[in-house]
Amino acid sequence: MKKILSISAFFIFMAVSAQNFQLHNDFERGYLTTTFELFKVDKYGNTYTFIDFDYDAKSGINQGYYEFARVLKTEKMPIGVHVEYNGGLGTFETGVGQGGYTINNAWIFGLNYAKGTAKWGYSTYAGYKAIKDADKGNFQITGTWYVNLIENKLTFSGFADVWTENGLSENTVFLSEPQLWYHLNKSFSIGGEVELSNNFVGISEFKIRPTVGIKWNI
Questions:
Q1: Beta-sheet pairing, 97-116 with 17-26
Q2: Relative to the CA of 139, which of 35, 58, 86, 110 has its CA 20 to 30 Å away?
Q3: Separation CA 64–CA 103 (nearest Å)
């Protein structure tokens, strides 16, 4: 799970900074995930970062995943320059104890375009993706969106990613997490998401994974 609320276009038009904390229950995987997000705008562009932790009932935190993205853009620039880092690590059970793994470091260098109002908005970028130990060059295309279906009460948002991990091959990955949030007040929202994926984390088939969650706007 990543980019739980990647609606950076919204914050570009509505605020200079925003952050939130989320707790999700993943029904298929049978574990909880917490996410902390931060988005901040300044005169040279914007910064977005988040970290996910997955919690297994037996071992506690069994995976951590981190993203950090910076868009360099001024008011006179129609398109921003996008630089992003991804990485993480995790554990798994073996017959004799616990093993560990890392999620290969990846850097993305590309261009970003965003547009929006108080009711709707989107942000998209495309770039070269440099993955550690990859034999071939790769790319990633990402789009995020939000629609305020009912003002101050109901928001539809999410993201969609397409990226490669070994050049143009059958291993091209698709990941999307559309979300629906009902806002109890300015601080708390309830709702959830549906993870839609193909060729993601070693699973070649198309998967649908729903969650329910609560979000605290800090």
A1: unpaired
A2: 35
A3: 9
**Per-residue pLDDT tens digits for 155-184:** 999 999 999 988 877 779 999 999 999 999
Structural domains in the chain plus CATH codes: 8-217 (2.40.160.40)
H helix and E strand count, the chain: 1, 13
Phi, psi of 10 (to 5 degrees): -60, -50
What gap in Å lies between CA 20 and CA 39, rounded to an integer?
Answer: 9
Contact 22, 216 (CB under 8 A): yes
Q: pLDDT exceeding 70 applies to what percent of the chain?
A: 91
DSSP H or E segment with residue 8: helix 8-14
Residue 96 phi/psi, 5° resolution?
Answer: -120, 10
Is 126 in contact with 111 (CB distance < 8 Å)? yes
Q: How many CB atoms lie within 10 A of CB 58?
A: 7
| DSSP H or E stretch at residue 9 | helix 8-14
CB 24 within 8 A of CB 211: yes
